[in-house]
Write a structure and sequence with these properties.
Radius of gyration: 19 Å
Strand content: 15-25%
Helix content: 40-55%
CATH class of the domain at 20-163 and 193-227 and 277-286: Alpha Beta
Number of helices: 11
Strand order of the largest sheet: 3-2-1-4-5-7-6
CATH topology of the domain at 20-163 and 193-227 and 277-286: Rossmann fold
Largest sheet: 7 strands, mixed
Low-confidence stretches: 1-23
Length: about 290
């Protein structure tokens, strides 16, 4: 993940800035406050669905990969069969700071999924809540998960399916008209390079088996949303395309873009938008 920095000035007609020169827009450190305010409930809802299909965790040691602000630990809170040890790891210090504030008892470690600083067989269960899509070398990351799991052990992972609803199509159309026709794919390739692969249950199952899991299964689910147009646009601002768009356009032009988007969404959808986002929920086990 990148680090915050000054925003280059860029006029709308010319979108030739390279992504390498604008790496700071990818950083989760810069959006931690907004992430907690806008996305905490969403990722806790996904975590609850994930934990519902995961094996029982009572008395076990759990590692939450890419823990962010601690959505999985929050979803576990108060359950009678919560694990005796929960460790969360992430690369973003700002996100871990939010997790520490929200969950003072959660053990936190700055760590990369592909280089986990734990001994072999240190955990009984690992979770990755919408995290695998961020790994360019996902096979290496999954192999690390296999290494740190005890036998028997299990891994529970969620990932997003494709956004094919009319709201997503409208946002993509508006954003790409402002910052370039290939923005959606380029930002996805930069921030979530494996999102397309892990949007398929069969691909997730294959990846788990290739990494060394004894059994693997993946099922489709969905997360329903109903929100105001302003809430939807705030949500999209935090996505990869929105973060890049704001960085490329600058604050003033980005505010004008959001005004145009708000008017267009209100014209197309009214005051509120309703849609569902597909999910893939997967479990890999080790005998």
């Amino acid at each position: 993940m990148g680090h915050g920095g000054s925003q280059p000035e860029c006029r709308a007609p010319d979108r030739r800035l390279t992504f390498a020169a604008m790496a700071d827009w990818r950083s989760y450190d810069t959006i931690a406050d907004a992430y907690e305010r806008i996305w905490a409930a969403r990722f806790e809802a996904v975590a609850r669905q994930l934990l519902a299909v995961a094996p029982p965790v009572g008395g076990s040691r759990l590692l939450d990969l890419g823990t962010g602000i601690g959505a999985v630990a929050s979803a576990l809170g108060g359950k009678a069969r919560s694990p005796r040890t929960i460790v969360g790891c992430d690369l973003s210090l700002a996100m871990l700071s939010k997790a520490r504030h929200r969950l003072p008892d959660l053990r936190l470690v700055v760590a990369d999924v592909v280089r986990l600083p734990f001994r072999d067989a240190s955990f009984d269960l690992a979770t990755a809540n919408c995290v695998l899509s961020h790994l360019a070398d996902y096979h290496r990351g999954l192999t690390e998960v296999v290494r740190i799991l005890a036998r028997p052990g299990a891994f529970a992972a969620s990932s997003w399916g494709p956004s094919t609803d009319p709201c997503a199509a409208a946002w993509k159309q508006l954003l790409e008209a402002a910052v370039g026709a290939d923005t959606a794919q380029r930002t996805a390739d930069t921030v979530v390079p494996s999102e397309g692969y892990f949007s398929s249950p069969e691909n997730v199952r294959t990846a788990l088996l290739e990494a060394g899991f004894t059994t693997a299964r993946a099922v489709s689910a969905e997360l329903a949303h109903d929100c105001s147009v302003d809430e939807y646009l705030a949500d999209r601002e935090l996505g990869a395309g929105g973060r890049f768009g704001r960085h490329a356009l600058g604050d003033a032009e980005w505010r004008r873009f959001l005004g145009t988007a708000r008017d267009e969404f209100a014209r197309r959808f009214g005051d509120r938008v309703s849609y569902s986002r597909p999910l893939v929920l997967a479990i890999g086990t080790l005998g």
